[in-house]
Specification:
One of its GO terms (molecular function) is methyltransferase activity. This protein is of the alpha/beta class and 387 residues long. The chain has helices at 3-15, 70-80, 135-139, 154-170, 191-203, 217-229, 263-273, 288-292, 299-302, 305-326, 359-372, 377-381, 383-386, and strands at residues 19-27, 36-44, 47-55, 60-66, 81-88, 91-97, 103-109, 180-185, 208-214, 235-239, 253-257, 278-282, 329-335, 346-352. The strands form 2 sheets. A 7-stranded antiparallel beta sheet has the order 4-3-2-1-5-6-7, with helices on one face. The protein is elongated, with a radius of gyration of 25 Å. Bound molecules: S-adenosylmethionine.
Length: 387
């Protein structure tokens, strides 16, 4: 196929709304700032558009153009890049261009004729794409350098994606007029801290400053090296204990993922005291209530160690959520990731509302606590907010 013929064919296919998705890559000049462009159709105000996602070294930028503007855009893209992978509804196309625009063209029928979801905000847009190389995922060993998710890291990849969906839901609650301050307590190897940074800073281009805190010095040092390598200059890592971390006055989002036992409560209480707009917390082992539980009415459950442990964990999270509800948050317990991947799958998600609790709510909390003989650590931490 000749170059001109190829161009006309592509314009005809795209002009008749056959595009499902495309990736245009291999810059002709090494100095090209844009490394790859992804295309997909979207509908904006009832008009068909093509969305272009430009991948720079560390940033993604988006542009939406009408079909009329696409002819010129295609010329521009073909001047800059030499490789095209395109999924049309009924055909898969691969084209390689030489320096002088000789075309190697491969095309095959699509196995199934594809339908296209044109909605602008489809959830999929927010997730990390399986075949796109992301510098942080490569550096953390989740992806190979060409963007393939490593088999043994697939669960982690799914968890990261799920977490980013939750982060996306928080956008409306974050301040727009200042640097958004985010703390990740017990950040460990920090897969999710890097993911959060990538999503908010690189993809959403928000002005944020993130700190990951953990007890483990070596792990934190390694994370700091990775952040420096990636030039994530607003992401820092500190060695420290959640229980002693008192260095902030105001924080906008507090994240704790699998921080052990009452370290989760300490992080929640800090978040409330700092007036955080958003709290995302997946608790880990919950021993506190397990040792306090004394509820004769529940003996047929609690005499089984396994059930007692699980019950204590569920009751602890219910108590945590209720306390947050009583100190001005709207707190929900939602599934973080399916049980296949981890049994620690309850996320406490709380958004600041400032709403005061009513007496009925307070009474039912007291009743529940008394029934179990529970003396919640978090209640003690937040007693001045509960009175
Ligand atoms: C199970 S790991 C989870 C790491 C990471 N948040 C994740 O979800 O992949 C729990 C981390 O919390 C840290 N941690 C537990 N208690 C802590 C405390 N009191 N202060 C700081 N870090 C703590 C541990 O060192 C560990 O790295």
């Amino acid at each position: 196929m000749e170059f001109q013929e190829m161009k006309e064919y592509l314009l005809e296919q795209i002009g008749t709304k056959q595009l499902v998705s495309a990736t245009i890559s291999q810059p002709r000049a090494k100095s090209n700032e844009v490394k790859r462009v992804k295309l997909k159709p979207i509908e904006i105000k009832n008009t068909y558009h093509i969305q272009l996602e430009y991948q720079y070294e560390r940033v993604l930028k988006h542009e939406n153009i009408t079909l009329n503007a696409f002819t010129e855009k295609l010329d521009e893209l073909l001047e800059q890049f030499r490789q095209l992978h395109i999924d049309f509804k009924a055909e898969k196309v691969q084209a390689q261009l030489s320096k002088k625009n000789k075309v190697i063209w491969k095309s095959e029928k699509a196995i199934d004729t594809k339908t296209v979801d044109l909605s602008h905000n489809r959830k999929k847009n927010y997730l990390l794409d399986e075949n796109t190389p992301y510098p942080f995922l490569i550096r953390l060993g989740v992806q190979t350098p060409d963007g393939k998710v490593k088999k043994q890291k697939y669960d982690k990849f799914k968890q990261i994606n799920r977490f980013i969906e939750f982060i996306d839901d928080t956008l409306a609650y974050l301040p727009k007029d200042k640097t958004v301050r985010i703390l990740d307590f017990g950040s460990g190897k920090s897969y999710l801290t890097f993911a959060l940074y990538h999503y908010l800073k690189i993809e959403k281009e928000l002005d944020i400053r993130v700190t990951g805190l953990d007890l483990k010095k070596e792990v934190i040092e390694e994370c700091a090296i990775i952040a420096a390598d990636l030039e994530y200059d607003q992401l820092e890592f500190l060695v420290g204990d959640i229980n002693d971390y008192n260095d902030e006055t105001a924080v906008d989002m507090v994240v704790t993922l699998h921080a052990c036992d009452v370290a989760t409560d300490m992080a929640l209480s800090r978040a409330v005291k700092w007036n955080a707009n958003v709290i995302l917390s997946v608790p880990c082992c919950q021993h506190e209530l397990n040792t306090q539980l004394d509820a004769p009415g529940l003996n047929i459950m609690l005499k089984h160690g396994l059930i007692k442990e699980r019950f204590a964990a569920l009751a602890t999270d219910s108590i945590r959520a209720e306390i947050l509800n009583m100190v001005g948050y709207e707190a929900q317990l939602v599934e973080f990731i399916d049980m296949e991947n981890t049994p620690k799958n309850i996320l406490i998600r709380a958004y600041k509302t400032g709403k005061k609790p009513n007496s009925e709510q307070m009474a039912s909390y007291q009743q529940f606590k008394q029934m179990l003989n529970a003396k919640p650590f978090l209640e003690n931490e937040l007693k001045e907010y509960l009175n």
